[in-house]
Amino acid sequence: MLTIYHNPRCSKSRQTLELIKENSTKEIKIVEYLKEPVTQADIEHLLTLLSCKPIEMMRIKEAEFKEQNLSTADDSALIAAMVATPKLIERPIVTDGLKAVIGRPPTNALTLC
Q1: Residue 39 and residue 66: Cα distance in Å, rounded?
Q2: What predicted TM-score, i.e. pTM, was given to this entire model?
Q3: How far is CA 70 from CA 32, 64, 81, 83, 93, in A?
Q4: Which residues are catalytic?
Q5: Which residue, among 85, 35, 93, has the nearest Cα to 60 in the 3D structure?
Q6: Domains in the chain, please, with CATH?
Q7: Quick one: CA dihedral 84, 4, 96, 47, positive or negative?
Q8: Per residue in 75-107, pLDDT tens?
Q9: Collapsing DSSP states into helix, strand and coil, what is residue 111?
Q10: For the range 51-54, what are the long-range contacts, defined as Cβ-Cβ under 8 Å and sequence gap of 24 or more?
């Protein structure tokens, strides 16, 4: 099964979802993370699967990033910010449960298909 952390208003997220549908026979679980909030444990698990630091999983150009003064925050504060403000999570993220990729560009997701 593939899980996509999806924002239907985002063109890259929509493109990634379509690519997955066209190129995978796996079942797809769609998590609209702006409607279904993710927990700290979810974020930490995705970070492990992505093998990245919290800052690499964030949309640093969002106004909320600057408003919350996150540019110098430590990892735990960044994770807490993503939980409190899911809009800060880079999108889309696709996982097969063993590894994950950020769908930027959307073709990154094909590695999991």
Answers
A1: 22
A2: 0.95
A3: 24, 9, 8, 14, 21
A4: 10
A5: 85
A6: 2-112 (3.40.30.10)
A7: negative
A8: 999 999 999 999 999 999 999 999 999 999 999
A9: helix
A10: 54/78, 54/79, 54/82
